[in-house]
Amino acid sequence: xxxxxxxxxxxxxxPIYELEFSSFRSGVSGIQVPGKSQFSPSVKxxxxxxxHSALDIIEDAQWSTNSFNLGxxxxxxxxxxxxxxxxxNIKYVLCYDANGSGTNGSSSPSLNKNDENSIKxxxxxxxxxxxxxxxxxxxxxxxxxxxxDFDHRMKLLxxxxx
Amino acid sequence: xxxxxxLEPYIARQSLLRHTFSPVVSLQATYxxxxxxxxxxxxxxxxxxxxFRPYGNNALYSTNDQVFKVTNNQLITRTYASFPVRFxxxxxxxxxxxxGSSASGRTGNAVGEGKLQQLFSVSSLxxxxxxxSAVVRDKTLYRLYxxxxxxxxxxxxxxxxxxxxxxxxxxxxxxxxxxxxxxxxVNFRNFNFPKYFQLDDLLVFVFILYDPSQINDTSKVQLFxxxxxxQLDANSIIVPITEYGKSExxxxxxxxxxxxxxxxxxxxxxLQSNAKCSSVGMxxxxxxxxxDQSLRKKIYDFISKYxxxxxxxxxxxxxxxxxxxxxxxxxxxxxxxKRLFNNNEYSNIMSPDSAHSSYxxxxxxxxxxxxxxxxRKLADWSIILKDFKYAxxxxxxxxxxxxxxxxxxxxxxxxxxxxxxxxxAQTQKSNSSASKPDKNTLRKIRHDIIEPYLDxxxxxxxxxxxxxxYHIRTLVIVIELLLCxxxxxxxxxxxxxxxxxxxxxxxxxxxxxAPSSQKLQVVRGLLYERIGYTLGKCIFLHDEDRRLLxxxxxxxxxxxxxxxxxxxxxxxxxxxEKRADIGIMGLxxxxxxxxxxxxxxxxxxxxxxxxQVNYLLQNIKMTFNIDDITKEWxxxxxxxxxxxxxxxxxxxxxxxxxx
Lengths: 162, 659
What we know:
heterodimer; A: alpha+beta; Beta-Lactamase; 4 helices; B: alpha/beta; 5-stranded parallel sheet; two-stranded antiparallel ribbon; 22 helices; 11 strands; Sedlin (chain A); Longin-like_dom_sf (chain A); Piso0_004789 protein (chain A); TRAPP_III_complex_Trs85 (chain B)
């Protein structure tokens, strides 16, 4: 069961929304709470830094492709990093460990193709949600997103795709 | 502006040449010579080797206007400001030390044959670095780590850097006779050396110490010199030793840590902590300036007049007799036909003198008479004489022979040297006027040589031979040289290669210690720091665009208030401010570099070494505000940076409270 860390990063490199969760897809073993991420504490405390460091690569990769989805751009100690960049220069970063249990490991090839696609879907819909949030006149760019509704919908998305 | 701060790769390159790729000169002194020298210095707990050893590093202990001329095979003469040598005990001693430390406890003469030992002990390295980190700070600590990993005295068959190039007998003119000297030389020659060691290439040399106050004219000593030359065919140098009063013209501090291995350092630290007697295990010894000057002069004479010409001559002879015929058309034809028509598979396995292959696969060495062994030495000596291109081509030639003989240790070591000599050739200072190698060459170097060779040798060292430390040493050296290459030619695209190898290095260290479930903290911290340094130096800008970088660096300390526009009366609060890094967006890796630095800081934090933490914090100031706890995201209380800053503040509070 993979664990995920999803973050939306604003234009000043500031995280505006964070979500940690684990995959709902494969069978839940019963011991742990479903959807609770399995990152070890030492990884947890650097997760925002990992996504922050991925910005270097994102900014480099954005010039070389036409699509918003940048795909898998980096890996850090067995954590894969996928990214998506929006028209307004908002970055969506997803860090995940491929084989669950918090240790390192390479993703199995059968899983990979499918994963890439669902992550792309996830990013696209997350972007839609963000745009809806941006339409709110009381919200301005780079503010933290605190809406419980946004959070709820994001979790539904996570459950649907990852 | 120098950001991030770290050990410059060129310094690492220099110390690599100084500590690893320099000739070994073994020293053997008679009892009389030792006592004469001790009397001269006025210190009775010291050995002649201890005094000579630091002078081997003639970059540090130089004479006035010293110049070393080296002529290569193409008869091009280059001059160098220094040509370090390593003074070591004679080979029989080196070999017996190695034997003593090997657990198997074999008898004295079957040395270094068969099973190979690890190069160094990783846990001792960790202990040493932990101890030194209290004293040694900043980038010097990484340098210490680097030097300790590359310094070794292991005599192995597949690498001749630690085989002595010269043997010096130090005798006392007044008490030692010619017969004594002859006996010493004969005894030395009769020692049962390892079968791969080529005794005949050794330059036998004599240092004659004499006391000028005891004889009237030096012509007698010179007569003695000619006698030695005539009867024993050995050159000599005379060194006057008077009794220097301590107060006369001051004394000079001589470092004792020069070129010492990890074990020696640990032993010295142990002695220091238990020492009753002051002079045992000291880091420095005092030596009278007069003696200091004359020793420098004499050792310079020895190296420039005898050692370098001897090595040049040997290299030329081997090139003529072995390498050139091998490279010629007939030579190639001959070697192919030998392979095709040699059906007798069993004839060459056991006998080293066999004409077909002189590889002894039982004990893993080539016999000293084998051309393969000599060629390897030829290549090694050309590295020592700083002819890296020639060395590379030689390594390339012999590699095939080793592969044919399945001499895996030789193959791996030669692959290592191929990479090293290639990059050394590229980064040679006198070459630097040459233009940057083009894209295709760079790709070839990386994809056809560096990467496959590294993979290959890691398999050999780890799986075939179970010698992880050799692999670690290779990685450490190659990483520094790659960094050096990147810096010389501005190749940022290679930093991922360096990063990958550094990560590999960390996992190698971990795997080495895995059975004993020990933890590496200092080494880990140092390696993380190096990754941070590598990425911080990785900037995808042409030289002429570097000014963009300085614009960014000037604006680095983050100010949250945007600059006010004068024309606008009412600034628009919703307008996004311009980013400072707009010029270099996506072209630098400062943020990636910072996370590695943070990991390194965390290791040091756990070790409670705040000096190192403060030094490393300077390297992330471009990305994060390091002065106080802000309201930015990275200072959130569940993140590592908050933990670090908090600890520092606490520590400051404690130290303020103390004072």
